[in-house]
Amino acid sequence: MKFLLVFDFDHTIIDENSDTWIVKCAPERKLPNGLRNSYQPGHWTEYMGRVFVYLGDNGVKEDEMRRTMTTIPFTAGMIDLLGFIGKNKELFDCIIVSDSNTVFIDWILKAADFHKVFDEVFTNPAAFSSTGYLTVQHFHAHHCAKCPKNLCKRKVLKEFLDKQLERGVNYTQIVYIGDGGNDLCPVMFLKKNDVAMPRQGYTLEKKISQLAQSLSPVQCSVLVWSSAIDILSYLKILIKE
């Protein structure tokens, strides 16, 4: 009996958006209007690439970025939840699927000593160039019209599950924990026995309830959370059953 926990990162594990938090490193802690207005829907990764160039041009170094990123607060109750999962790793496989990037997630998880809780992190690859600029790439290519062009979380989840099946790992239940519009695609892939846990008041919860109103509800169960303690309570019930 093994459960798969799938976490989004921004506004789920941490209580902020890591990509917008980095702007605190910019001169006067803000971006020029031209740069801010250059974002085009579905092309967030390219936009962040331009933000990182701007930070680099303004002499923002890796150390300063790391210090800034590790001040992001975790969502209420999340430290307790991740501690509990870490103590029960024989029952839970745990992955992150996020539109953030490898550098930010790595810094934040390692600073809080939570990197061992997660078996794999699927996010946009990032690295510092020889000139000290942070660069970010698309996670993968896909053909899903619903998702931003750099990342379809359903595709990531499906490929992970297929790979696990080849290794002989079949999950009793998948629990998907997220908040954003790009979490809807993987949630719609979940089966009847699985559970979607959208964060209260965020886009994912609204989109799931719109689907229910249009009489095409998701197949899985839906449990809304406002603090990670709600998720922790559910997991405790799950492993007692």
Automatic annotation (TrEMBL):
Binding-site residues, Mg(2+): 8, 10, 179
Key word tRNA-binding present: no
Signal keyword on record: no
Keyword list, A-Z: Hydrolase, Magnesium, Metal-binding
Residues annotated for substrate binding in this entry: 19, 99
Xref: PANTHER family: PHOSPHATASE, ORPHAN 1, 2, PYRIDOXAL PHOSPHATE PHOSPHATASE PHOSPHO2
Protein name: PHOP2 phosphatase
Gene symbol of the encoding locus: Phospho2
